[in-house]
Design goal:
This protein is of the alpha/beta class. Helix content is 28%, strand content 21%. Homodimer.
C-alpha cells in the first residue's frame, strides 16, 4: 500500500540553495566541515627540575633498584612552585602551532586535558586562550585523566570534520607534583609534570583513525583522590584543616586491568583504522608503567621493527601529558618521522580509555 505524498514536504528540497542554506522558515543550514582531519603540529614542555630516584628514597622506604624494577622510572620532572598547568602549556602550544605554520589567532578551539588544574572554574583552557592570544577561541577542560589526550584528539577530529572548528589545539598537561603524597610508598615515585600539545586541522586524506573508547566506572576507586574537597568544609561552610586530597591508587587492580583489557582495545583501534599491525610504524601507549607497556607489546604481537615509546624512564607518569611528551621525544630523536602511522592509547582513572591511529606531521 502506497501513501499519498502530494502534500508531504519532508523530502521537498525545492527551496534549498546550492550553498546548503535555505530561505524556508524552520529549516536549519547543515554544518560544513572538512572531509578529513589530521595532526598538523606537535609540541612539548618539560620542567627543568629533575627528581631522581635517590631523592624519592629520602621520602619513602625504597631503593633506586626497586623503583626501576617496578616501574622503569629513572627520574621524573617537577615544575617550579610558580609554574602551573597554564604556564607549562604555553610553550608546548606555541611549539605545536609553529610546526603547523599557524598563529594563535588561527585557533578556533582549545581542549585542555588535565586533572590537576586546581580551580573548579574558570577552565584552564580559557585562561590559556587569553595568554596565548587565541581569544575568542572556544575553550574548555576535559577530565579523563591519563586517557585525556586521546579523548581530546577524538573530539578535535570530530569538530574539524563536523564543522564546529577548523583548527583545534589539544593539550595534555599535568602538575601531578601538587597532588602527590611524597610519603605514600605506592605513588610517591610515579608521578611527574609536563605538557604536550597537538594542532588538529583539515586534511585532504584521513589522518586520524576512528577512536575506540569507553569506561568502567565500577572501578572508579582504583585511582582517586584520598577524599573529596568537601571533606575540607565544615558544616557551617567554613574551611577546616585536614589532609590534602592527594592521589591514591590500587596498584595491582590498575595493573591487571591495563595489562588484560587494553591490548584488545589497541587492536580494535588498528582494525577500525584499517591498519595491519605489520604496517604500524610507531606505538605510543600511556606511560604508566614499563611492565604494562611490555605486557601490551607482547599481547599485541607487535613486530620488533615497530619502536615503542618508553619516555616513562625520564618523565615518570605524567597522566594526560604522557602521550604527547613521549611522541615528541620520539620525533626529536628520529625514532618516529613525518608520515608515520602511530598507534596511541591512553588509560587511567575512571577507569577510562581511548585509542586511535594517527599519521604524524
Amino acid at each position: 500500500m502506497s501513501r499519498d505524498t502530494s502534500n508531504d514536504t519532508s523530502n521537498d528540497t525545492s527551496n534549498d540553495t546550492s550553498s546548503g542554506t535555505s530561505t524556508r522558515p524552520g529549516r536549519l543550514a547543515p554544518p560544513v566541515g572538512a572531509g578529513h582531519a589530521r595532526v598538523l603540529g606537535v609540541g612539548a614542555y618539560r620542567p627543568e627540575r629533575v627528581i631522581t630516584n635517590e631523592e624519592v628514597c629520602t621520602w619513602i622506604d625504597s631503593s633506586d633498584e626497586w623503583i626501576r624494577e617496578r616501574s622503569g622510572i629513572v627520574e621524573r620532572r617537577w615544575a617550579r612552585p610558580d609554574e602551573g598547568v597554564v604556564e607549562m602549556s604555553l610553550p608546548a602550544a606555541r611549539a605545536a602551532l609553529d610546526q603547523a605554520g599557524l598563529a594563535p589567532a588561527d585557533v578556533d578551539a582549545i581542549i585542555m586535558a588535565t586533572v590537576t588544574w586546581p580551580y573548579a572554574t574558570p577552565s584552564a583552557a580559557a585562561v590559556l586562550a587569553e595568554r596565548l592570544g587565541a581569544t575568542p577561541a572556544a575553550a574548555f577542560d576535559l577530565s579523563a585523566a591519563c586517557a585525556g589526550f586521546c579523548h581530546g584528539v577524538a573530539l578535535a577530529n570530530d569538530m574539524v570534520r563536523g564543522g564546529s572548528a577548523r583548527h583545534v589545539l589539544v593539550i595534555g598537561v599535568e602538575k601531578l607534583s601538587d597532588f602527590t603524597d611524597i610519603h605514600d610508598r605506592g605513588t610517591a615515585f610515579l608521578f611527574g609534570d609536563g605538557a604536550g600539545a597537538v594542532v588538529v586541522g583539515p586534511s585532504d586524506r584521513p589522518g586520524i583513525g576512528p577512536t575506540v573508547w569507553g569506561s568502567d566506572g565500577a572501578q572508579w576507586q582504583a585511582i582517586m583522590q584520598k577524599q573529596s574537597w568537601l571533606d575540607l568544609k565544615a558544616e557551617d561552610g567554613r574551611h577546616v584543616e585536614g589532609e590534602f586530597p592527594a592521589l591514591v591508587m590500587a596498584g595491582q587492580t590498575v595493573f591487571r586491568w591495563a595489562v588484560w583489557q587494553m591490548a584488545p582495545v589497541a587492536q580494535k583501534a588498528l582494525d577500525a583504522a584499517g591498519v595491519a599491525i605489520d604496517d604500524l610504524d610507531v606505538f605510543v601507549p600511556h606511560q604508566a608503567n614499563v611492565r604494562i607497556i611490555d605486557a601490551m607489546v607482547k599481547q599485541l604481537g607487535l613486530p620488533e621493527h615497530v619502536p615503542v615509546a618508553r619516555d616513562i624512564a625520564f618523565s615518570g607518569n605524567t597522566s594526560a601529558a604522557s602521550i604527547p611528551l613521549a611522541l615528541q621525544r620520539m620525533l626529536d630523536e628520529g625514532v618516529a618521522k613525518s608520515g608515520d602511522l602511530a598507534l596511541l592509547i591512553g588509560f587511567g582513572a575512571g577507569l577510562v580509555y581511548a585509542a586511535q591511529v594517527v599519521e604524524l606531521p
